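Example for tutorial group B:
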């Protein structure tokens, strides 16, 4: 039993040794083969990675070429945009220059218009002064001469007994009376003394009588409230403006009647209106007519009223009559000059 067991132990040991050597040999072989396999795998992976990198590099080259082309296109567009900006800046500078020229020209036109209006107003005032001088000369010179001639003719007529010469003297006396009436009428039309002595409303009432006598136009003068003081040149300007408007009614409105309404407005303003129930008209079209038509008269009236700080409003339609309103500032109390220069016609009623 013991021998068998000893052999078995020796054999077992030899078997174990053989197994160990095999294991060591196999392990050494395994260890030798593992780096080679790993190297082959790593080389394959590296080649795969290189191929991928080459493909990626190719894609990047293609993308880079596209980016370069796009960059060139953007540079071209940028240069075009810069050229357009320069062109627009040049155009803008030109537009600014033209605008400055237009503004300068507009200002010069405004100044010229203001100067023309001032000259026109001064001309109107000069004309009025000349009218007064002419009316005074007619009254003092020609009127007095005619009166003296009539007195002397009356004396000759009384002393003369022969009928034929007496009749001739009578005819001469009648002609002198007619000339005297014409002189008085001309004197009143040139510069009605009532405008300077009694004021605007009485002067308008006298004007109404003259319009009926000369043109057959019946004019009603209505006033409401006390008007502020109206000093020169406003008083004469307004009177002549109303006269011009009434003459337009007589010539163009085809109506036998007209009304002038006067009343005080707010803040010391004076309001006058001329109303008729005639044919009416288109105001803008009338302004475009030639100098000889009514448009020039309306334009002249408007410019005169604007010069004294007022305005003229026109309300008219063809077939519906016309109302033309004149609104202007009355004289302030602190600016009153007293005497004949102020208008107290608001105290006078009809």
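The residue assignment follows.
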């Amino acid at each position: 039993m013991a021998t068998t067991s000893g052999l078995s132990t020796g054999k077992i040991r030899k078997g174990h040794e053989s197994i160990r050597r095999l294991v060591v040999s196999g392990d050494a072989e395994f260890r030798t083969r593992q780096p080679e396999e790993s190297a082959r795998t790593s080389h394959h992976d590296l080649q795969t990675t290189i191929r991928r990198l080459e493909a990626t590099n190719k894609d990047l080259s293609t993308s880079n070429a596209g980016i370069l082309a796009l960059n060139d296109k953007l540079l071209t567009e940028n240069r075009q945009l810069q050229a357009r900006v320069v062109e627009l800046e040049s155009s803008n500078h030109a537009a600014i220059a033209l605008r400055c020229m237009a503004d300068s020209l507009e200002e010069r036109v405004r100044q010229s218009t203001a100067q023309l209006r001032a000259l026109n107003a001064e001309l109107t005032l000069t004309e009025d002064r000349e009218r007064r001088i002419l009316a005074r000369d007619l009254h003092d010179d020609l009127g007095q001469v005619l009166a003296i001639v009539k007195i002397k003719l009356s004396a000759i007529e009384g002393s003369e007994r022969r009928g034929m010469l007496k009749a001739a003297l009578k005819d001469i006396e009648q002609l002198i009376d007619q000339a005297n009436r014409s002189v008085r009428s001309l004197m009143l039309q040139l510069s009605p003394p009532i405008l300077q002595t009694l004021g605007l409303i009485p002067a308008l009432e006298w004007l109404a009588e003259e319009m009926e006598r000369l043109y057959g136009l019946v004019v009603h003068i209505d006033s409401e409230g006390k008007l502020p003081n109206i000093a020169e040149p406003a008083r004469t300007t307004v009177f002549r403006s109303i006269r011009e408007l009434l003459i337009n009614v007589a010539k163009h409105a085809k109506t036998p009647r007209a009304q002038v309404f006067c009343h005080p407005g707010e803040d010391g303003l004076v309001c006058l209106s001329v109303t008729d129930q005639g044919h009416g008209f288109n105001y803008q079209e009338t302004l475009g007519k030639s100098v000889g038509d009514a448009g020039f008269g309306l334009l002249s009236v408007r410019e005169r009223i604007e010069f004294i700080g007022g305005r003229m409003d026109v309300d008219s339609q063809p077939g519906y009559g016309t109302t033309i309103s004149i609104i202007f500032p009355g004289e302030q109390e602190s600016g009153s000059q007293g005497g004949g220069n102020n208008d107290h016609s608001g105290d006078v009623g009809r």
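The helical segments are 2-159, 163-190, 193-197, 200-215, 234-253, 283-287, 294-307. Compare this with the pattern of hydrophobic and polar residues in the output above.
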